[in-house]
Amino acid sequence: MTTMLVGLVTNAVSDESRWPGWLGWLQEHAWFSFVALGAAMAGLTALLAGLSETRPPTPPGRPEDGAGPPGAAQVLRSLPRDTAAFTDRAAELERLVGSVRASQERGEGLPVHVIDGMPGVGKTTFAVHAGHLLSERFPDGQLFVNLNGHTPGRTPVQAGEALASLLAAAGVPTQQIPVGDDVGAVTEARAAMWRSRLADKKALLILDNAASYRQLEPLLPGGSGCLVLVTSRKRLVANEEVVMSVDALPPDHAVELFVRLSGRPADALGRDVVEELVRLCGCLPLGVSLLAARLRHHPSWTAEDLRGRLVAARDRLGELHAGERAVAATFDLSYRDLAPERQRFFRHLGFFPGTDLDPHVGAALGEVSVVVARRHLEALYDDHLIDEQPGSRYRLHDLLRDYARGLAAEGEGMDHVQAVRRVCTYYLAALAVANGHIVRSGAAVPPAPDDTSRVETPALESRADALSWLETERANVLACVRRANGLDLYDLVVRLAAAMAPFLRQAGPWDQAVGLHRTAAEAARHTGDQRARGDALAELGVVRRFMAAYPQAIEALNDAVMVYEAVADRRGKADALNQLGIVWYLTADNEDAARAQTEALALYRELGDRLGQANALADLGMTHRQMSRFDAAVEAQSEALAIYRELGDRYGEANSLRDLGVAHCLMGAYDLAARRHQEAFDTYLELDDRVHQAYALNELGVVRRLTGDIEGARTAHNQAMTHFTELGERFGRATSVRHLGVVERVTGDATQAIRLLEEALDAYRELGSRGGEAASLSELGVARGIVGERDGAIEAFQRGLEILRDLGDRCGEAEVLNHWGTLLFTSDEPPAARRHFDQALMLARDIRCPLEEARALEGIGRCDWTIDWPGHGVDSLRAAVTVYRRLGLSASVDDIERLLV
């Protein structure tokens, strides 16, 4: 459980200018691999029920391997299209619609409706048709999830995976979807979030192909206004569900469906023959549709011709049970009517490890061109042997998938392996194209294998195209990895994991990425490819860091470093050291962080890796700033900025500008700091990155407050808070609330300041942010002192100082000492106050923090004046005026000059 409690282990101090320049969250176009049966989607830690609601932002220096987070999109209309094959089920529909209408009119909670029945009976068709009929009653959305409870070759979808899909579909950004190693706790957290998301909503949810009640129970909304339709081959009996069994069609309805789909007049068919045909296929809608399609595609056949063929097919399948034989016979009849090349293509579709496919995948499976594959797929759809899905994609019915696999297994066992190898090779080629759009400028793109030159890949012309394709194919690629691993195709497992890594870094879900990279590391061990094993371990460490599982991240990254050293891979070692430095930075192990980044920087320079140099320099600059080494921070960050500009890396440029602004603010160069933050904000605006816009706004607000523009500061922090609230970014929101508390304190409303600061303090503690906690405690001490709560103020200062000293933040320490000295001075304890100011002055001068130096000098001067050392007091006050003037803080200068007069 502890690995799930995502704490932003921080080094924040009293102003946002003193906490790390967190880089934004990796957002995955929504992960929707099971929703809408593979419909294409545009770009996806809030743990409820006692868990944290935010993940750590991307650590210092840059977003990971992508030009920023893909936008999360709400996809609340995902029902498959209604089918013409639906035939009259008036009684069942009337019962369902009547049940829903009655519950809504009485204001009662809607019960779950479980639709069960044998394979091929039309459960899904019935549920989808009912969903379309009822859609107007559920204006907040209609969602469809295939749980794969009985899909051949696929394991049932786990509840946690389905919940991730649903949350993404409901507009939850990827960074808020709970992750962790405790599957049960993650599922509970996601279920709680899902229930919260649908509270007071009127939405329709179809859970198709459920394996058990246990699988679907966590997916049930908590609100009373949502309707859930469940389809299953099993009778899932629970307490409050309405169970509706869908049986085979009545003979009259089956005949009507056959006539309609055959495209022939009823009197031209022969009623007796049609009745026998539908009886031979068990009056199952799937079988009736297939038979009618056969007749429609053979104008020269009579219904009697079709009957003879069906009887022969049933005889061939006589070893099957009666129900299976009824459906399989219709499959066999349709299959044998195909041309040999189409038969082979159909058989190979059964080898596909994924759920839905497009012509490019079909081409890889069938060893044909995309044009030919598209022609085959369209023909198979016309023959009712595959279903069409949104986005020009296709899917085999579960029974047809099983039938195709059975045909292939009869004489093409080795071809199974080759088909999987071909489709994996196709995905590697397509992933290379997609990564070319999403990987940042200068970063290495996992190459496609040498044998992909003849592979046809989809036309991905932009980053948006690449993200949409990746979202659509994510589940299929991961299914291919599992199948390849099961077939001992370890080289493909390693390559696919590496090719998916850039996308999973930014889109998540990260617990899914952990499983992938673990599998890849083990596969590389089988192949003996130590370099690939190092790559997998390094990716595992990065993802563990995103999950705030820092000990596991350090372990994986240290293992990667050792593997790279063993094979003399300097670039791999540099990357792993860079990532180790980031983890140590986040855990405030500053010396280790600086050592790792310095070593990584040296390796990157030896290799001539410009992006690596920029990243290491940026991260080193962050570490130096965190250690109050401001000159070193500016030097490193300035060099990083120059390289990012050389490479045309706009995100790197913006991030370095923002961190330079933070350092300049701490060094008292407020005009320069404001310019840097504005430049960063403008770039983030251009990149449509709202998370980083909000960070930059908070930084701008700090500068405005320090330079006397109080209303400008309030506006900036309020705008940042709005962004963070809408994005669900609790850490950023807590920081905005804290800064607004400081604004209220400065403008004289100490009571409101205390309320806001206590809210921020609670949030930081829940998130595990020690730096944020220290910053809030420092300001709380000031505000409590103003309202006369002296003991509470001292307690806040003491706790804040302990944290800051533990973190090694000397600038923050100096600020707390100055605040504490001011409290003691106003409490008529000037000697004790002077001791605090003396300590603050020593710290501020040592780290070259002019604002705290000026505050300490002012405090010392006022204490000496009061203690009856006016000469000493005047000297200190005049020294403070000199520093304040250099900083451009005229209000502080005026205060002291009035005292001197």
TrEMBL record:
<dbReference type="InterPro" id="IPR027417">
    <property type="entry name" value="P-loop_NTPase"/>
</dbReference>
<dbReference type="InterPro" id="IPR002182">
    <property type="entry name" value="NB-ARC"/>
</dbReference>
<feature type="domain" description="NB-ARC">
    <location>
        <begin position="103"/>
        <end position="260"/>
    </location>
</feature>
<dbReference type="Pfam" id="PF13424">
    <property type="entry name" value="TPR_12"/>
</dbReference>
<protein>
    <submittedName>
        <fullName>ATPase</fullName>
    </submittedName>
</protein>
<dbReference type="Pfam" id="PF00931">
    <property type="entry name" value="NB-ARC"/>
</dbReference>
<dbReference type="InterPro" id="IPR011990">
    <property type="entry name" value="TPR-like_helical_dom_sf"/>
</dbReference>
<dbReference type="InterPro" id="IPR036388">
    <property type="entry name" value="WH-like_DNA-bd_sf"/>
</dbReference>
<feature type="region of interest" description="Disordered">
    <location>
        <begin position="51"/>
        <end position="73"/>
    </location>
</feature>
<dbReference type="InterPro" id="IPR019734">
    <property type="entry name" value="TPR_rpt"/>
</dbReference>
